[in-house]
Structure formats: structure tokens, C-alpha cells
Write a structure and sequence with these properties.
2 copies of one chain form a homodimer. Chain A is built from 22 helices and 21 strands. The interface between A and B is large, with 132 and 132 residues.
Chain lengths: 623, 623
């Protein structure tokens, strides 16, 4: 017989079960009016999912459990499936605290009738399920049962008929790398259809990958599949994750039946086991679609993050370069131009070109704008520091004057902008200020701590410099007017902190971004080592591996030894400059690996493997 | 028959297998000369343990595995047991990468004869074993075996006799909160003695706890127990963990036979199964012993951290307060006074008392010292900001002048010190500068981002303010001369950033540290919620729970409503100010829960449970 399903995509506010409960209550009451048989909510829809060690707060857990009970009480006349935390107060978890579960609850006739706990616990990137929750895998082991016997579909009476539902949570469907396949087990054990409730962040082309995974799960045994995910943002301090939703109902063969609109509360309804077979098209993958998703994700993420921290106004340094131009565009889209305060902070080293580009960008976006020069305090600081004399307070009385190098002076300017001006203005306006760094800079530490590393949020710090240009090009192509002027693409990327970085003479950053961005991606996202890179260089496969023009390397590097020197320079910069990332602001995560708690680092210094050293010796000779 | 054991406590350099291998090689060669039968090294002695996601670098893993082979080659004539990473390249881990194991290797006659992989994977605090490694628990499940059957002692021929050794790794012995007890299983399955190799950071009274745990493990079946741990520091970016070693050989009944000296390379040798039964005394626990351990740990941690980042000089702001006084003492002990540059940075708000206390401390410690006033730039900045006018670049042309509040002006001074002066001096001296914050400040955000939040390392940020005073008192009691003058204990703690914070009028920080420190500890370390606190306040148990004088609360809070107001103020400060901790420097972890990646947080805003609100309503009336 037919079953009427309502798949509810809701924004979950992590750490605020009261608000989440209210949203669930109102959706349940709509579902009742609509005559739905089963109404489904995402994983951890009550507490939120990425809440750090708040899971250790027992009062909070109890509070969530009391909301679970209140949700169950709403289930007169229909079945509710939702994700929340569950606890077994008689048992301890492996951290010695109350044993907790990441659970899919099912309620009917006012009572909780089933608690399915997650089997596969992701423990990579930002995921930490084993830190907080006990899996059904461990429960099976404790009872001396096989997982296959332990995982069973849930039997529910729907309209007088016994139905078997395969309830699963998020990772349970992404089982390719596991020795256990919960979806297949549920189907083998008699599930008529699958519900998967998730709290799954957006990543590049993940929706498309999910469609493929669902088809694969249903390969041996066909069955309808209902995937329910939340929207909103959740953060672990160092990263802000975007939840686009992507709630989807799949037909028996894994084809798409219906899908929620992204980044908003939405409900899709369907009648399972009816004779109708609706099929919607899978979105076609393209560079444009990727850019569109990226852009809407970044703007949504910024808006939601400001909501979260209860800020409405943003201050942003505008240098006239491409990074601050893109950032200010994103922020003005997220908050409205009236809430954005652009500041240009020239010193003697800033060119007329960039100063005028900054102003033009602020005009294009109709921002609030001010020019606050740093030259006076810069000069005063150089003088004050150069006149500072330390005296050893012992019998020797040794004296030491400070000497400032060119780099020391560059950093003084950056810190003056970040810590004196921007932080001062933000504080006076009761606003926060934006970090404009891109991923290439963050990776190589081509930034100044307490200078341009500062800010409350870093919207583009998960985009390499070349991706920044790409996104600007895309925005120009979809906006009615040209947002980013041609000059912005023509001037060299430069910090403009010294006479050596004079863009009017074509001098810019010490990077060939078209190569270095790809090298950095190989290090950061593909987790490759200099050994892998040097091997590729030696055997001629590197250009293909990185996706480079085959002539680039031989043209750019005049000799093997220059290639190796550059490789070691970049590896060293990436490794050593982690100390700056430790003190960097939250980054909106959009790549396969964002700096922060997604990619976990340690201050280790620089290391080269024995193989690397051997290959280098062979290539360059000597020892 | 007798077995000669050498338990080698070595400093492990995380991420530098080459250096670790050399150390192991030299210890093995000593053991051979000494005629030892078995030489034992700590867990993860080759790669290090806390290395972030460097575990995902396959070239690094291969490099470690090649060192494993080279260690095995050293095992002619004796048995070597050591910890390292192992990989099964035919299988994937649950992150889709090469499957890796946290393994205890045993080698004999030039070959690896056994690989025991860790059974219990800690996943709390800084530990993340499931993120990177596959446990023997999962291996057992995959093979359809019980863990009890899977975990077996290793059989080795020693001096012509078959011996059964129970090899285990770290958490395998700390099984109280697990459903599996590997040590007991090994003994049940015939192990004659236990080896536990660990990479276990120092925490408060942990050695004593370990002695108790070993006794408990041996309760049902007696057997000698060899515990080998490393020294050094390892970090996860946000926290620096201290490894004191504590390598111990236990007799069959769990009494102590011998123990390495702390924080240094050391070897203890013993003959197992001999008629001799040496017993050494367990160190007696006391407040003095705790302070001594804390002090030596902090100094060791600072010294090793500076070694790690290859820095030898430190700049430190000296306000004349107790925090900067203690920090400068620790740093001068760690690096030598000649490498420490103290800087006093007065503005109009700094009292003569604190200025002279700063100088006296620098004299006592014989530091390099300079006074660098911030008054001029402070005044300039206030004026420059107050004269800044934003213009809306649209048809409206709306203008907005900045207005600075008293708090805005306080923060300008702090940022000027942290970002203009200290960062400028550190950069000119090729030094790093020290963060002087204590845990009470870090917890409540009573700090200025880009001001006193700055620095390369925070030595005392895991000590509450009252603990800072305690440690100073202890240092005074053990040093030949008085380091911290009486006035330091007498003046009120104050930021001295405004006329309202005038210590000469007795005005200081808005905290009653003797209560608020304990409240914060309850939140941070005991993971309690305002609900728990309010419950204790209501039923009269709070003073006992916190360990307070019973009269304090009633004397300090004139009414219930003032108590609740204060409770909510502190909870709110703690929760909201996480944004500052995101950008804070590495903290040396010494408590049960340090801010950083030990305690994982999320920007969530403030939440009160239903129970809390109900209790508050009952207590105060109203709704």
C-alpha cells in the first residue's frame, strides 16, 4: 500500500534545541494537516551536530532528551523520524562520561517506538563521531553479535499494515571505505525502503556524488530511498561549514524523484509505492554550476555566520587588489551595502592605480567608505623602535639598539592596518571586520600575523588566488554591470608594502600562481609530499598529475636545481607558517580540505623523506 | 629463567623519524654491550604521535616503515620492542586512505617477528586515534572473532626458552571505561609479563593514578609490568603537551621496582623472574610536589617549544602585574636571562607602583629591559579614529563619524602594546614574544584580541589567576632570594587601561577570583552547566561541590538575584568570548582541560536549559 512521506529540510541551529524543537513542531503540525504518514527530519535536528565538546555537558544532553520526548508526544496520527542525541545513563562511554548515541528516533502514537544508532562513525576532516558517540558497531561487539544480525529494519504499522523501514544515519550510506555496509544489510534484512537522515556539509560536487552513491547502494536490491539533510551553518571555531540541504527522494532504481531547493527550509512530499514514477533530471555538472554553487554558498555562509555572532555590520580593508574586492562584494551581498564599511589605508607604497581601484569598487558596491592613512604612525613606529635601547640589568649593563630590516618595516604597516585601524574602527562601530586572505597566502604564510591575518571571518581563505580570479570573472559574467574592472585582472598581485613591491613597475608577489596553486593543492588537499612531486618531475608525469600545461615547468624553471629550490621553498613556507594559521580567524570551508580543524596540523618543522633526499641527490648530483 | 630488560625513555621528536631512529640505534647498541635480552622503546617512537594529519602523507608513512625495517636489522642478539606506524597497503582505512595501525613492533635476529596493533583507541581530549588508525578491535570484528580470542601474547625464544610476552599500547592499560580489558585478556591468555609502550602526556597526578591502575590490572593475575613512555613536547597547534616519561618497572604485585627520572633521556634495567625483589617507594602526593611538577613542566615545555620553533630569544611585556612577572620568571629559567627582553609600555593609566614593580622584576631576573611608552600613538589613534568619517557612496551620501567609548579606548592601548610594540620588537630582534594571559582571563575573554591575546606561546594560560599566585608563592619558598615581592600579592589585579582601573584606588578586575576560578573550573574541566550550579546553589551543596568556604557565597552575594546575574555573566563571557580563543596562541597544557584542541569548542552563542529556566523562575519568581 501507498505511504505518504514528507521530507523536511530545516535549518538547524546548533546548540539551540529550543529553537530547533519549535521548527520541528510547526512542520509536524503541517504534516498532520496534510495527511502525511511519515514526516522526516535531519540527523541531530534537535541539538545540532558540530557543537564541539558541548556533548560533554550532561544538562544539555538531558535538555535535548526532554525535547525528544516532546517530539514523540506530537506523533499522534503519524510517524515522526528525527535525529537527536540519545543517552544510556546506566553505561559509560569510552571517555568515562555518560554513554551517548547519534540516534534516529521514530515515534508513533505519542511514543518513541525505535532508536536506531549510527553504525558508521566518520572520523576524518571535521568529523569526530567516535569522540562523543557509541556506535551500533560497538554495541554489536559488546553483545557478541555480528553487525549483520544487529542491524535490522524497523517494523511499523502504517494504515493497518506492517511495514519494514530501513532507518540509517548519514555515513551509514557512504560505506565504500568500510568493511560494513549498513544500507545493503538493511535491505537484505527486509527493509522495503530506506530513510537516511543526515547532517552533511556542502562540498564541491557532493550532491552529484551522493546521487551516484545511492544508485550503488541500490544496485543489488532496489528500493525507494529518502535522504533528508539540514541547512544552516555549523562551525568548529576554525571552520564554518555550509549546509545546503539537498534533501532528495530517490526512486527504486536510484533515479531522482524530487529534491529540495538549496539553502532554505523546504519540504518535499511523495507517495511511495504508488504507480506513479516521477523522475527529475540530475543537474548537469559544469564549471558554471560549480561557480554558481560556490558563490551562493559563500554569501549564505557569511550571512548565517553574522546571524550567529549577532553582528550586522562589517568593516573591510580595501586595498584595490582582487582579494579585498571579491571579499567586499561577498560581504555586501550577504549583509547589504549599507552595512559594509570599506576602508582604504594608504602608506607611501600604495600606487594611485590601486587607491583608485579601491574607491571604484566601493562606488560600484555603494559602500560606506573612508580613507585612513597609516603613514604618520608607520613613520613614528619605525623611529620609536629604532630608538629603542635595551639594557641588560646585570653587572654587564650591555646595551642593544633595535635595527629594522625591510621586512620588519613591511610588517609594521600591515599590523598598523589590521590591529590599529580596522580593529579600532570595528570596535567603534560595534561591527566586526573581514579577513581578506586567500588560500595561497594562508598556505604560504604570505601574510602578517596581527596584520592581514586578523579579522572575525575569512570568506575567501579556502580559495586559491587563481580561484579568486575565476570567481570574479564568473561574477562579472552574471551581474548586470561589470563589478570587477579589467585593471584588477591586469595589475600584478602585490602586497604593496615596500618599494620593491611596486605594481607600477610590474613587481608583485613571489609566486607563479598558475603553478604554485596547483602545487599547494597537491600538498593540502591531495596530501602529497615533496617526494611525490619530485618523483613526478623526474619521471615526467608531474604536469599531468597537477593538471598543468606540459610546457610550463620546463619554461618556468631554467634548471632542475631551480625547480628543487622552489619546491623546497614552498614546502618550507607551507610547513613553517602554520604558526600564523593557529592564530587565524574562522574560514568558510568550500574545498576538499580547508585550513583550520578540517586539516589538522602540528608545529613540526620541515622534514624530507629518505626517498626524497635520494632522488634529489640523483637529480642534482652531490650529496 | 631470568630476562634482562632495558626500558628506554627517550625524547621523541614528532615528525622527525630520522632523528628518532638515530636515538633508538644508539640505545640498542648500548643494550647489546650491556647484554640485555629485551630493549624497549615508547609508543610511536619513530614518527611521534601528535602530528596532526601528517598521518595522511603516504611518503612520510613509507619513510617511517623503512626505519622500522632498519630497527629490525639492529636486532641481532637481542629482542627490540618499539612503537611505530604500520600500514597495510592492500586495504583502506575508513577515511579511504591507506590503512594504518598504531603498532608495537617486536624484532629478533634482524627480522620483525610481531606486530601488535592497539586495541583501545582514545578519542577524548587531545586524542584522535580512530581518526588515523585501524584498531585490533575492528580487525577482530572484520574476522568475525571475539576480541578475547584475537588478543594473544607474543611467543619469543629468549635464551633458548619460549616466553610469552603480553605486548600492549598505552590506552590498552587504561581500560576502566571500556568493555574490553586487553591487559587482563593477555594475562588470561598466558602472558608471563606485560610490556606497555606509551606516548602519554603529563597531567596532574597522572603518574600516581597510573601506579594505581597497574595494581588494578594485576589484581586477578600477578605479573611483572614494564611501562615505557617518552619525554619531549608534542603539539597540536593550539596546545603543547608535556611528556615527562615516568617509565616504570613494576613488580608482580604492582609495587614499584624502578622508575626513570622525569623529563630526560634515561634507561632503567631490571632482571625479571630473578629472586630479587627491589621495591622503591611511591612518591608521596602533596601540594608541594604538585607545584614542583608544575613548575618543572612549564619550564621544560617552554624550553622544548623554543627548540622546536628554532627560536632562542623571547620578548615579553612586563606590566608589573603578577601574570607577566610569573611568565618572565618561567621564560628566563627556560632560555636564560640573557635571551629575555622585558618591555614596559606605559600609558597615562599605569601607576608608579606597577611601573616600579616591572623594573624590579626585570632587575631580579637580570633581563634585558626597555621602556617604550605608548601614550603618543594612543592619543594619535584616538584622534585619528574620532576624526574618521565614512561616506556612503550612493545617492544619499550619508556620513558617519566614529565615536569611541571608554572600552574602545582601553582596547586601543592593548592592541598598541601587542601588535605595534611587542610584535615590532620581536620582529627586529628575530625573537618571538610571550603571551602572559592566565586561564581566568582566557576563559572570560578579559583580554583584547590583537592586544594581550597575541604572542607565540602562552606559558600560564592553563593556570587560573589563583593558581598563578600559588605558583609565585611556591617559587618564593624554594628560590634562595624572594623573586616576587610582597607588593605583587597586595595590589589588586588590574588591566590598568582606564582611570576606572586605578590600582592606587584599589580598583581592579571585575572578578572575585577565589570564587570565579572555581566556577570556571566547574564549567571547563568538570563540564558542568549553569543548571548544575544553580541546582547546587538552591539545595545548598554548591560550596562543597566547588570546594569553597561555606560562608563565601552568602557573604559575597547580597541576594539570590545577584548570584544568578553573576552566574549568567560568567557563563555568557565564557561562551561568547570563544571567538578570542580561536585566534589565541598555543597554550602549554597542564590542567585536566586546556583551551585549544584539548577542549573543543564551537561558536554557538549562549543557551540555558529548560531545567535552568524553571529553577531560576522558582528561585527568583516572575517568569
Amino acid at each position: 500500500m501507498e505511504i505518504n512521506i514528507a521530507a523536511c529540510q530545516i535549518e538547524v541551529k546548533p546548540g539551540h534545541p529550543d529553537q530547533n524543537f519549535e521548527k520541528i513542531r510547526s512542520r509536524v503540525s503541517e504534516a498532520k494537516k496534510n495527511g502525511d504518514d511519515i514526516v522526516i527530519f535531519p540527523e541531530m535536528a534537535v541539538p545540532g551536530y558540530i557543537i564541539g565538546d558541548e556533548w560533554e555537558n550532561s544538562a544539555f544532553i538531558n535538555d535535548c532528551m526532554s525535547y525528544n520526548k516532546r517530539i514523540a508526544e506530537l506523533s499522534e496520527g503519524l510517524v515522526i523520524v528525527w535525529g537527536s542525541v540519545d543517552a544510556d545513563k546506566q553505561k559509560v562511554g569510552e571517555d568515562g562520561r555518560i554513554r551517548k548515541f547519534n540516534t534516529a528516533f521514530t515515534a508513533q502514537n505519542g511514543k518513541i517506538i525505535s532508536r536506531v544508532c549510527k553504525t558508521l562513525h566518520p572520523d576524518y576532516r571535521e568529523f569526530d563521531d567516535d569522540r562523543h558517540f557509541y556506535s551500533s558497531r560497538k554495541l554489536a561487539q559488546d553483545r557478541g553479535m555480528s553487525v549483520r544480525d544487529y542491524i535490522q529494519p524497523l517494523t511499523v504499522d502504517i494504515n493497518g499494515e506492517e511495514r519494514k523501514i530501513g532507518v540509517s544515519l548519514c555515513e551509514d550510506m557512504w560505506s565504500d571505505d568500510y568493511s560494513i555496509h549498513p544500507i545493503e544489510i538493511l535491505l537484505d534484512n527486509g527493509a522495503e525502503f530506506i530513510i537516511n537522515i543526515s547532517c552533511s556539509p556542502w562540498t564541491w560536487r557532493k550532491n552529484d556524488k551522493r546521487h551516484r552513491v545511492v544508485r550503488q547502494r541500490l544496485q543489488a536490491q532496489k528500493a525507494p530511498f529518502v535522504y533528508v539533510n539540514n541547512t544552516g551553518v555549523q562551525n568548529n571555531g576554525k571552520n564554518i561549514f555550509l549546509f545546503d540541504g539537498g534533501t532528495t527522494i530517490y526512486n527504486r532504481d536510484g533515479s531522482l524523484r524530487d529534491m529540495c531547493r538549496e539553502y532554505r527550509d523546504d519540504v518535499i512530499r511523495t507517495t511511495l509505492f504508488s504507480s506513479r514514477t516521477d523522475v527529475i533530471k540530475r543537474p548537469v555538472l559544469s564549471h558554471e554550476r560549480d561557480q554558481e554553487e560556490l558563490l551562493s554558498g559563500l554569501i549564505y555562509g557569511l550571512r548565517k555566520f553574522f546571524e550567529l555572532i549577532r553582528a550586522s555590520k562589517a568593516v573591510i580593508g580595501m586595498s584595490g587588489g582582487v582579494d579585498s574586492s571579491l571579499s567586499s562584494y561577498l560581504v555586501s551581498k550577504a549583509l547589504g551595502a549599507e552595512n559594509v564599511y570599506g576602508v582604504n589605508m594608504p602608506s607611501e607604497f600604495n600606487s594611485d592605480i590601486t587607491k583608485s581601484l579601491a574607491r571604484r569598487m566601493a562606488e560600484t558596491l555603494r559602500l560606506n567608505y573612508a580613507i585612513v592613512p597609516i603613514q604618520d604612525v608607520y613613520e613614528y613606529s619605525v623611529e620609536q623602535l629604532e630608538q629603542t635601547e635595551f639594557t641588560r640589568l646585570d653587572a654587564s649593563g650591555v646595551k642593544k639598539m633595535l635595527e629594522l630590516s625591510s621586512v620588519d618595516k613591511e610588517n609594521i604597516q600591515s599590523r598598523d592596518r589590521g590591529s590599529r585601524i580596522l580593529a579600532g574602527i570595528a570596535s567603534a562601530l560595534d561591527a566586526v571586520f573581514i579577513n581578506n586572505g586567500n588560500k595561497s597566502e594562508v598556505a604560504t604564510g604570505y601574510t602578517t600575523l596581527y596584520g592581514d591575518v586578523n579579522g572575525a571571518v575569512a570568506p575567501i581563505a579556502d580559495l586559491y588566488k587563481t580561484q579568486v580570479y575565476d570567481l570574479c570573472t564568473y561574477i562579472n559574467s552574471v551581474e548586470k554591470k561589470q563589478i570587477f574592472p579589467d585593471e584588477l585582472f591586469d595589475i600584478p598581485a602585490s602586497a604593496e608594502l615596500s618599494a620593491e613591491q611596486d605594481i607600477e613597475k610590474g613587481e608583485g608577489d613571489p609566486f607563479a600562481y598558475e603553478y604554485h596553486d596547483k602545487l599547494l593543492r597537491a600538498f593540502i588537499e591531495w596530501r602529497l609530499d615533496p617526494e611525490d612531486i619530485l618523483k613526478g618531475y623526474t619521471d615526467g608525469s608531474l604536469s599531468d598529475t597537477l593538471g598543468m600545461d606540459r610546457n610550463f615547468l620546463s619554461e618556468y624553471f631554467a634548471s632542475d636545481s631551480l625547480f628543487v629550490e622552489d619546491l623546497e621553498r614552498i614546502w618550507r613556507l607551507y610547513k613553517i607558517n602554520y604558526f600564523k594559521r593557529i592564530q587565524a580567524p574562522p574560514i568558510i570551508a568550500v574545498s576538499k580540505r580547508a585550513f583550520g580543524f578540517d586539516l589538522r596540523e602540528s608545529q613540526l618543522g620541515v622534514y624530507y623523506t629518505q626517498n626524497y633526499k635520494e632522488m634529489k641527490r640523483k637529480l642534482l648530483g652531490g650529496d
